[in-house]
Amino acid sequence: MYVIECLDGSLYTGYSTDVLRRFKQHASGKGAKYTKAHPPKRLIYYEQFDNQHAALHAEAEFKKKSRKQKLTYITENESDLPLLEAGKMIQ
């Protein structure tokens, strides 16, 4: 599960088995319909799960939260994983 902050400040949540590849797709305009209309600024959070079912469940539950609840969740579950910005992606 991953969370992208878009240029307009909105948050986009998705699921992928390869977050870096998926973020590059979003940043290049080939991602979801939402991120085509709301270009991504940076990847602000991602979390790994043991299986697809757990990841999809976490994504669905996260999407039910208010923006404030989402930001609190991200702050409370911060990890040491590197974050990515659209113009400064790892090659």
UniProtKB/TrEMBL annotation:
Q: Which domain of life is it from?
A: Bacteria
Q: Where is the GIY-YIG domain?
A: 1-72
Which Pfam family, any one of them, does this sequence belong to? GIY-YIG
Q: Which SUPFAM superfamilies match?
A: GIY-YIG endonuclease (SSF82771)
Among PANTHER family, the record links this protein to:
UPF0213 PROTEIN YHBQ (PTHR34477:SF1)
Q: Which family does it belong to?
A: Belongs to the UPF0213 family.
Protein name, please?
A: GIY-YIG domain-containing protein
Organism, as annotated: Lentilactobacillus senioris DSM 24302 = JCM 17472
